[in-house]
Model the fold of this input.
Amino acid sequence: MSTPVSRRALLTTAALAAGGAFGQEPPAPPTPPPPPRFGTAAPKRTMPTLCVYSGNLAKVPYFQLGDIASQLGFDGVDLTVMIGGHVDPRVTNVDLVRAFEAIRGSGLEVPMIATSITGPQDSTAFPVLYLTGRSQVPLFRLGYWPYGQTVSIQQRLIQARQDLVQLLPLAQRSTITAMVHNRAGGYIGQSVWDTQEVISTIDPRWVGYCYDPAEATAEGGLGGWESALRLALPRLRALVLQDFYWSKAPASASDWQMTKCPLGEGMVDWDKFFSIVAGSGFTGPISIYQQYVVQDSLGAITRDLEFARRHVQKAWAPQASR
Done:
């Protein structure tokens, strides 16, 4: 375990490291021994960590997140560090470490954060990644690159790759791994195949996948989600759990839309999905999203957690007994 370091020392180190023009490329990561790490590392696990996506509890202040998530039965928190999230990245030095401490003080883990970062041009990227990585939070979810209509698909993939390559030194220096979420609907990563083209030659220690079976099923249909999952497995770092079904858009006779719903009530093949992931040896974090509207939000969160835990225990128990 690393030597304890005060919050003040951590923030002072981050402030000094962030000095100078942000646009300049940061120094290369140091050679072994590795830089000091701050905070408390999560224990080695044989089962995935079931986390609440903190956006599900948007009205709960970050200093109460751990207590509420613990009462609901979660193992950890997937913390939103973005404008409108639990920690505003523009005031990272004030809130981020405090948020980690508050959640861990409730006995929960913080294995990942969700951000809107897509490259080093984001002035909040360095302080967010540095403080997160040095607090022993190993993963951060990247933001999204819309394909748009102004450039070709191939050119947009090249742009995304350039962003990631330029972001890589920050990830290395902070000892934290970036993750691409396969968001459906016109974003790079929607099919996983496009992400693979972007990251295939980048060191897998620093860039991986945050795989979402609902988004993959929406984009891949009957068998595409499984092919996408198998492609992602060697770099799989985290999972996002959602479910959905297709419904007609309001006031339309022809337009279909992706309608989110409670886990198990939609189109995701959960038994097959969990069987494949468990068989791969995955034990990383699982973030449970709730992007559907219900009157009893906490009750719905609890039901989704119970659904996920049943499937995780069923799928991972044979793996753990080996």
Notes: The mean pLDDT is 88.
